Amino acid sequence: MKLYILIQQLLRRKFIQYFVLFFILISIIAVIASSFEEMATYKVLLFGITYVSSFIFLIEYTARIVSAPALYPGMKTAKARLKYTFSFYGFVDFVAVLPCVLTYAYWDTEVVHVIILPYIFIIFKLIRHSRSFRIIGMALASVREELETAYTASFITICFSAILMYYIERNAQPEVFKNIGDGIWWAIITFATVGYGDIYPITFLGKLLGCIICLVGVAMVAIPTGIISSSFINIVQKKEQREKFNKEEENRR
Fold first, then answer.
1. Does residue 162 contact residue 183 with C-beta atoms inside 8 Å?
2. Positive or negative: CA dihedral 182, 183, 185, 186
3. Do residues 93 and 60 make contact, with C-beta atoms less than 8 angstroms apart?
């Protein structure tokens, strides 16, 4: 157990986190750059960066699996490792090492692009290594029930308005509102006040419903925004108060 704790402590060291963070960032840049035709001449270099980064992530992934019992002290070794493997971060870490395992075999084939595709999940590794993302995650977690309520109300409103709009407009625009799916698309872009203009009502009742949904949408979108903002501010304030308290305690000593 002491070895597992030691590995976990090592993984939490700032220089290790910055080291991994560096490879996360250059991997993301390499994946983005590989989509440009102008970068075709640097294909080997870009895939090389991806491969080396994946190898680093493979070492990190192995270390986290080995030391998983330190994260779950009350569990048996095998069960703790399985729990980490099937956790969110375990999945992200696994996807991050796929290019290292598979790219070598399919280097010069089209399959390599399919292998690289799941690599976009590496962006989620930033959550673990970024303090800002952790604060955002804490803010969302602390108001989960409130957000569930707000989004449930939004979902009900969108479904109701989509079905209603379909039956209002289907005779006037059968080629536009072909099914309720088209109504859902209209409801979402109207509710979010985006309004692409590709689908819109032309009847009086349809326009009236559109106006109502626009007004309701502004209010409904503002609710979760306000909830998240309030939670974020509270967490930042608590963090600052805690740091201030710790600093005062150190000064007293």
1. yes
2. positive
3. yes
Pair (159, 211) in one structural domain: yes
- For the record, the structure tokens of 124 come out as 């989620």
Same domain, 230 and 151: yes
Question: To which H or E segment does residue 84 belong?
Answer: helix 77-85
User: Which tokens sit at 148?
Assistant: 């569930």
State the total domains in the chain.
2
Which domain range does residue 140 map to? 134-250
Does residue 23 carry a pLDDT above 70? yes
Average pLDDT over residues 166-182: 92
Identify whether the C-beta of residue 119 lies closer than 8 Å to the C-beta of residue 96.
Answer: yes
Q: How many CB atoms lie within 10 A of CB 248?
A: 9
Q: Does the model's pTM come out above 0.85?
A: no
Same domain, 110 and 140: no
Residue 203 phi/psi, 5-degree rounding, is: -85, 160
One domain, residues 5 and 101 = yes
Q: Which residue, of 68, 102, 128, is where some domain finishes?
A: 128
The Cα–Cα gap between 101 and 85 comes to 17
